[in-house]
Amino acid sequence: MSPTARDGASPVTKPKPVAKPAAKLVAKPKLVAKAAAAATATKPAAKPKLAIFGAASCGGCDVAIINIHEHIVDVANAFDIVLWPTVMDGKYSDIEAMADGEITITLVSGSMRTDETIHLAKLLRRKSQFVVSFGSCAGEGCIPGLANLSSRGQILDTAFSTPSTDNPDGLRPIWEYEVPEGVLHLPAFEPILRTLDQVVDVDYTIPGCPPESNQIWAALEAVVKALSGTGPLPPKGSILGAGVSTVCDECARKRDVKKIDKFVRIQQVAGFDPEICLLEQGLPCNGPATRNGCGALCPAVSAPCIGCYGAAEGVVDYGARLMSAFASVVEATKPEEIDKVLDGIPDPVGQFYRFSLAGSLLRSGRSAWQNDGE
């Protein structure tokens, strides 16, 4: 014990040491700059954003993208995919919340047939730096575009009121329906089907029904290289993943400018010469008017080109160009002879405008505009 405690006196408390104020650290400008540069270097650069949207279509274009095989991993590595309803969940509200131009590139497949698809096309155009018309439906209208020969009423009659349709109550779709939770809305069915470039400004086009998978990757790779500074950006309006000539120039079959006196359908002939042009054997082949890039795969197996890659470079109207090509091989001068030859083409619109009616100079039949039926 201390003496003070032994004597019964109150213990004396020693004063606590007073802490000295901490020295202020003054950051040197050069050190701060180096630290900021190091942090920036270690932070990964933001990926360009990619959106993929399908309007009025069969979904084949989405399958074609997946069919680029291992390159789909390269796409995922190169892009932040923000919208692809076919393979991942997504909300339109997420796109609406983005800043204008925040999406780097958007691939739009399918044609414009409802007010919903038109609204989304315009929304994605506003949010995207580049919009690509992807596939025949978006670029030309494709098979759905043939419905432009009929009014909305005629189309709905065919869908809901034919003998093959089990609809005893005569039900028809309605665009608004009130339920306890509110009003449900179906997308309104537009009088005619439009191509994407008839609704919004389009930067690039990738043709095909669907586009060939190798061509899809070549087009995406070109954009990736341009964004990374390792390649040139294609000029606006370019057709990507296709050539500038015709399928005939890719086709290995021989052409002898032979004249024909009739057209035949493929099921009417036991076999075709594997080396001679199909058109010169009387089989309606759309190669003379169709853009190359597919590798002429159909004629290679004795199937006629049906025109899914769209009009060749410089062709104003696909159907008109094809009629001219067919006329050049017909050996007939009298009207009755010409009519007999043309009888071999039972569906002229389907032959000459199968993929391109909505994007052609004709665009639609009169009934779609003047006899809407509603």
Main attributes of the structure:
single chain; 374 residues; alpha/beta; Rossmann fold; 3 domains; five-stranded parallel beta sheet; two-stranded antiparallel sheet; 15 helices; 9 strands; globular; disordered N terminus
Number of strands: 9
CATH 2nd-level architecture of the largest domain: 3-Layer(aba) Sandwich
Structural class: alpha/beta
Q: Spans with pLDDT under 50 lasting ≥5 residues?
A: 1-12
Structure, described:
The chain has three domains: 134 residues, Rossmann fold, CATH 3.40.50; 37 residues, no CATH class; 97 residues, no CATH class. The longest helix has 16 residues. It has 374 residues and is α/β, with parallel strands linked by helices. The strands form three sheets. A five-stranded parallel β-sheet has the order 2-1-3-5-9, with helices on both faces. A two-stranded antiparallel sheet has the order 4-8. The N terminus is likely disordered.
Quick description:
The chain is an alpha/beta fold and 374 residues long.
Question: Layout of SSEs?
Answer:
Elements: H1 3-6, H2 29-42, E1 49-54, H3 60-66, H4 71-78, E2 80-83, H5 92-96, E3 103-109, E4 112-114, H6 115-127, E5 128-134, H7 136-139, H8 152-160, E6 176-179, E7 182-185, E8 189-194, E9 204-206, H9 213-228, H10 247-250, H11 297-300, H12 318-327, H13 335-342, H14 348-352, H15 366-370
Parallel strand pairs: 1-2, 1-3, 3-5, 5-9
Antiparallel strand pairs: 4-8, 6-7
